[in-house]
Design brief:
Rhodanese-like_dom; 137 residues; 20% strand
């Protein structure tokens, strides 16, 4: 299986219209706290927060699939994985598929996307640049 990249606006539409769709944010605590989170209130949901890598060592979270299950997620859920730019979330979605979560997708360009010409993120592509709802934690 391969993981499909889904544009952020399409993910937002699915989250609002599909009760089985879940956004799994795989960034670190520091990113959730200082950069912000997708605000899914209008969809009647909250993002599921499970780090793919554990800060500060940045080792891959060996219990990632177990954490998905403990969060109440099942292979019936459509899981949309998001990170800063789409790289960690792709790896997390691949691991989820390998663990039996067949409906695993990657949010293209992640929460902040690539840096702009001045080195700032959140303006070129990704959840924030698309003007989708988000908030500071």
């Amino acid at each position: 299986m391969s993981v499909e990249d889904v544009p952020p606006r399409n993910v937002w539409d699915v989250l609002r219209n599909d009760g089985e769709a879940v956004l799994v944010d795989v960034r670190t605590d520091a990113e959730w706290n200082f950069v912000g989170l997708a605000d899914l209130g209008d969809a009647g949901k909250q993002p599921v927060l499970i780090p793919w890598q554990v800060y500060p060592s940045m080792q891959v979270n060996g219990a990632f699939a177990d954490h998905l299950r403990k969060a109440g997620l099942t292979p019936l859920n459509k899981l949309y994985f998001i990170c800063r730019s789409g790289a960690r979330s792709l790896a997390a979605a691949q691991a989820a598929q390998a663990a039996g979560f067949t409906h695993a997708f990657n949010v293209a360009d992640g929460f902040e996307g690539p840096p702009d010409a001045d080195g700032h993120r959140g303006t070129v592509a990704g959840w924030k640049a698309e003007g989708l709802p988000w908030r500071q934690r």
